[in-house]
Amino acid sequence: MQLFTSKCRFVTYVLYPDRYHPISAESFDTEVYSQFYDPNVSSPLDEPIFCHRLSVMFMVLAIGSLMNTNMPAYNVDAEVYHQLARAALFHHSFIDDPTITAVQALVSHSP
């Protein structure tokens, strides 16, 4: 999974650098990617920021899957990651407890 995530990150941030990104590659690496792949980083699973970061992670996977030329057009994986991103974003109300990460996830959802 980590290799797939790295490939999706590469497709999203390196192959399409001219596309608007609501979160920079550096911020993604330090705030989101490390949250899930660095064993030394932990946060309570019930905090809204965790769900919002998970949503951003799934959106990067969705965009990377969708834009990956090695995968078929309109592949199912991209839609599954998009639905998971939506579920993670709406797990905690971003209206009642807004975070920058929630805004980044929302902007990632827009076409």
The 3D shape can be described as globular
Helix content: 55-70%
SSE class: mainly alpha
Q: Low-confidence spans: pLDDT under 50, at least 5 residues?
A: none
Number of beta strands: 0
Topology pattern, helix = H, strand = E: HHHHH
What is the terminal-to-terminal distance?
26 Å
Q: How many domains?
A: 1
Mean pLDDT: 76
Identify the notable features of this structure and list them briefly:
mainly alpha; 5 helices; 111 residues
Structural commentary:
With 111 residues, the protein is mostly helical. The protein has one domain. Helix content is 64%, strand content 0%. It contains five helices and no strands. It has helices at 2-15, 25-37, 48-67, 76-89, 100-109. The longest helix is centred in the middle third of the chain and has 20 residues, at 48-67. It is globular, with a radius of gyration of 13 Å. The mean pLDDT is 76.
Which SSEs are present, and which pair or pack?
Elements: H1 2-15, H2 25-37, H3 48-67, H4 76-89, H5 100-109
Summarize the structure.
With 111 residues, this protein is mainly α. It has helices at 2-15, 25-37, 48-67, 76-89, 100-109.
